[in-house]
Amino acid sequence: MIIASQKSLEEIREMIKGHQRILILGCGTCVAICLAGGEKEVAVLASSLRMAEKISGTEKQFAEHTVERQCEWEFIEEIADRVKEADAVLSLGCGVGVQTLAQRFPDTIVLPGVNTLFMGMPLEEGVWGELCSACGDCILAETGGICPITRCAKGLRNGPCGGYRDGMCEVDPNRECAWVQIYNRLEKVGQLEKLSALQPLKDYSKMAHPRRIEVKIT
Amino acid sequence: MSENRFEPEIIAFCCHYCAYAAADLAGIMRLQYPANIKVIKLPCSGTIDILHILKAFEQGTDGVLVAGCLEGGCHFIEGNIRAKRRVERAKNILDEVGLGKERLEMFFMSSADGTRFAEVAKEMSDRIRELGPSPIKARGV
């Protein structure tokens, strides 16, 4: 899923300066799981902003709403009327959600309330880790299901480098070396011979932005 | 008492198993504690939600105290520890907002601590009186 973290209250207040009626719009999917922009975060942010603005003597109106997903037309259609009532929409969705809103409501100012960080998963309570870089050319079959492009600090295709110590990465000694993990995993599944093959240079042209795919609907 | 003396309004979220019983005991013991403490009973301090605290401040309360069982003594094992974490987070938010984290505090006590409850009520009342009225209330809720 997509991992994001909420911007500071100070930054958000700077963004909403000059707007009177603000709709804080949460997203009930990825950002709700990573505690950045779900229904609860919308309520906490709205309450914080109401108090902060009141203390500063700048009265603003904050409306709250959370949709199931901000990145699909069907789900944001339901808020069309609420958007009309607002001077600006402060989206707590990821960058995709913000852009979907901006495209659907071209006359409305849409502001990002979170920083979108990466694609990953929850590793433990309150901790999320990056696992995929969306490189467009998946090599996980050769690397035992562990992505060196994302999890190796150097993104090496033929690792490990000479810098790892006791299984840890030289760039960050608190992080396990991805290539040591790959070795251990391949050994476990009896596929160590895969490490003998020299892997060709990665074709990063597949990461050239913006990407688009078309699937024939049958 | 001077007529102009500021009397703070303080919400006390109290666990049913400890602080609420302690407040009761304080009453039975005929202990004096400030009348500006408004007690809200919770089934466990761990049921406190960060929004309960923020909404209380948003609606103009001058201070909030959350009282749970002694550490290690929670009826639901770790509800008071969860409450402590939420109070810490709420304190950070209050600082960011500009209200100041001093207006919120977590206390731990047992149901036998009637005297402690009266002390806590007085301590919190004195602290908030020192800080003055909530700037939110001052601007009209």
Task: Indicate the overall shape of chain B.
Answer: globular
Quick check: average pLDDT of chain B? 94
Biggest sheet of chain A, open or closed, and with what strands and sense? 4 strands, parallel
- What radius of gyration of chain A results from the CA coordinates? 22 Å
Strand content of chain B: 15-25%
Looking across the biggest beta sheet of chain A, what order are the strands in? 3-2-4-5
Indicate the multimeric state: heterodimer
Cα(first) to Cα(last) distance of chain B is: 26 Å
The biggest sheet of chain B amounts to: 4 strands, parallel
Terminal Cα span of chain A: 27 Å
Low-confidence stretches of chain B: none
- What is the N-to-C order of secondary-structure elements of chain A (H for helix, E for strand)? EHEHHEHHEHEEEHH
Structural class of chain B: alpha/beta
Biggest chain-to-chain interface with counts: A-B, 15 and 14 residues
Poorly predicted tracts of residues of chain A = none
What gross morphology of chain A would you assign? elongated
Looking across the biggest beta sheet of chain B, what order are the strands in?
Answer: 2-1-3-4
Average pLDDT across residues of chain A? 96
